[in-house]
Amino acid sequence: MGQNTRESQKYSISSYQSFVLLFSTIFGAGVLDLPRNITDDVGNDTIWVLFIAGLLVWCILMLITVLIQRFPQESIAEYLIKILGSKRFVWIGRILSVLLLIPIAGAWLAGSAMITRTFGETVHIMILTETPLLAIMVPFVLLVCLAGCSQISVLAKFSELLFPLSLIPIGMIIFSTLIHGRLLNVLPLMGVSWEQLISGVLTSAYAFTGYTVVLVFSGFYQQPKKALKVHSLAFGFTFLLYWGLCVNTLAVFGPEEVTKMMWPVLEAAKILQIPVLIERMESIILLLWVSTAFTSAANLYVAFVEMVCGSLKWTERWRKGVAILFSFVILGIALYPDRIQEIWAFQKWYGAIALGIAICIPLLLLMIALIRKQKGEIKYAKKTSSH
C-alpha cells in the first residue's frame, strides 16, 4: 500500500509548480542579510559581483538540468545506481551511490538547520525578545517535520499557495527604496581585489543554495522537457529580486551603513510608511518573511526525506519515521553556534561547500552517463496545459 501511494504521486508536479518549488527553495532566509553580507565583502561592487555569482550558479543549475533531462521523471536515487553500477555488480552501484548521496543529504540538512537558526534569531531579536531561542525554534522544526511527512505533491500545492505572499513584501521594499535611494550611494565601482571578488561570490552562493533539490523533485515532473526553460525562469526571477534588494538597500543607506546593520532589508522596510493603515511596516514584512523561510526549509527537508526513502527503497510508511528522526538532527545543528556571528561565518563556508557539491557530483554523473551512453525515457507526458 505504501509503495502504491508513492507511485500515485509520480508525475504530479506541473511546470508552474516546479517553477514555484525552485523559487521558494532558493528565495529563503538569505533575503534579510544578503545585502549586508555581500556589501561587507565587496562594498559598492555588489552591483556586478552579484551578477557573476548569479551567472555561476545558473551555469551549475543548467548542468544539473541537463543531467535530469537525460534521465527524465527519475530522481537522483533512481538513476544514480544505473550510472554507477552494472547488471552484474549491482552492489557496487549501491555502495557508490550512498557515498555520493551523503554529501548532498548533509548539505540539505545543514541548510534547513541554518534557516531554522536564522528564523529563531530574527524572531527573538525583532519580536519575542524575552522568549528563549529554543522555544522559538522548536515549533518551526515541528512544522518542517510535518512537511517532511507529506508527499511532494502536497508540498508543491502549499508552495504554490504561499508564492504570492513572498512577493508582496519584496515588491513593497523595492518600490519604497526606489523613491528614497540616491545614485551616489552605489558609486564608485570596480574597487575590489581578486580575493574580495572570490569572497563576495562565495557569500552570494549561500543565498542561492537550494537549487539542488531539483535532483529529487524532477522525478515528479509532468513535463521534464520544459525543465530547462522553467529552471532558468525561476532562477532568473529569484536573482532579479535579490539584485533589486541589494542595489536598492545600497542606494538608500550606502555601503558604510549597510555593513553596520544586522538585517538591512528590515531597516529598508521602515522607510515605507502607510500611517492610516499600518504603523510599523517592518513587522508586517517580517511576518510575511516567516512563510518564505518556512517554505525554503521545508522544501530542503522534503527533498532529503524523499531521497533517503527512495535510495533505501523504503515504502511510504517509513516517511514519517525518517522525518521525525532527522528533525532532531536539524534542531541539534541549529543550536550548535553560540553567537549569530558564528552563523554568518558558517554561512560562507556552507555556500562554498554546497557550491562544490553542486558542481562535482552532477558533472561526474553526467560524464559517466555520456561515456557509458546511458539515458532514460519519458514514462508519462501530460498533454494538457502546464498549469
From TrEMBL:
UniProt keyword annotations, A-Z: Germination, Membrane, Transmembrane, Transmembrane helix, Transport
Listed Gene3D superfamilies: Amino acid/polyamine transporter I (1.20.1740.10)
Top-level taxon in the UniProt lineage: Bacteria
Claim: Membrane is one of the keywords in the record: yes
Ranges annotated as spanning the membrane: 12-32, 47-68, 89-111, 131-149, 161-181, 201-221, 233-253, 284-309, 321-337, 349-371
Major localization listed first in the record, in broad terms: membrane
Entry's localization field: Membrane
Family listed: Belongs to the amino acid-polyamine-organocation (APC) superfamily. Spore germination protein (SGP) (TC 2.A.3.9) family.
Name of protein: Endospore germination permease
